[in-house]
Amino acid sequence: MSEPAVFIVVLNWNGLADTLECVRSLDALTYSKRTVVVVDNGSANAEADRLEAAVPGLTVLRSGENRGYAGGNNLGIRYALERGADYIWLLNNDTVVSPGCVAELVAAGEHDPQVGILSPVVYEYGSEERVQFSGTVLDRAREEQHTLRSLSALEAATAQGPVLLWGTALFLKRRTAETVGLLDERYFAYHEDVDYCLRVLAAGLRTQVVPSARVSHKSGRSLGSERSPVREYLMVRNWYLLWRTHLSGWQRRTYPRRYLAWALNRVLNAQRDGDAVLAEHALDGIWDGLRGRWGPWLGKGRMPTALRRFVTRGLLAWHPYFWLLLLSGNAGMGRTVAKRFGWRRASPDETP
Prior knowledge:
Helices cover 45% and strands 20% of the residues. Strands 1, 2, 3, 4, 5, 6, 7, 10 and 11 form a 9-stranded mixed sheet that branches. Strands 8-9 form a two-stranded antiparallel sheet. It has helices at residues 16-26, 47-54, 68-82, 101-111, 151-160, 174-180, 192-202, 229-246, 249-253, 255-272, 276-291, 305-315, 320-328, 335-341; strands spanning 6-12, 34-40, 59-62, 87-92, 95-97, 115-124, 127-133, 135-139, 144-148, 169-173, 206-217.
């Protein structure tokens, strides 16, 4: 039997140096039946032309505008499907790939017909033995997301149930794209990978992390650090979309107040750090999420001034943890407050 055709889609947005390093690492892949496609997501400085000049023969698709992770990768998925792809690898441009990675992913995919989407283990760039990501576990009952950062944690979690995958290196079968569809462009960026994995599972397919396949990842290159205001806006807004999409029944009806408790805690943390811009973007994320305004962050709304002042100078200025605890649905005080919110800072990546 001939090898399955693998299309590798690399999304570029003002990241020429990283993209070139990624593409050049793909030259060393041991898997021969592969096609590399770079989607330029509306980059400045003629980066699409510069990519073509630097790598003769490279296929570069031009979107003309920044369509986000979801929209940009959807261009690549459509292109790959039209040209007979059996597998499509959505690969971040800030990654470097080990030579045997694709071969390991294809072997795992061919071994189990029920697997719809796979991922390598993602290691820290420059610290090659440090696992950055080996899967994500979603706790539906508590509406929490926990990232696995070791192979032992992956093994334990896999024994308990499905593990979700990051968008850093999503490896999907043709059947998956045809059955589940494309990425949801309402997210623009952040949480669309979790949404897609949940849709894959709902379609009766499985997810899998392949320990023998590995990539190295430079975190935080596209939108900057964890303190990026744009990132904060998208994280806060899209978390609401994710859970309102996938919760059901009473849990879905009562979710908005629990979401507010989590999101306002992020606002409070930013205020305590003296980061007014981060706090403002979190508030705008809440405002757009509750109003159902999705898509590109450039079109984001702004919470009305009067409401913003009420939240920041009223609600969060007078016994803030009382209000957060009340919204979360727990009327207890004292130690419960300290345990629930810990009088601690929530990590920018921390989910409710």
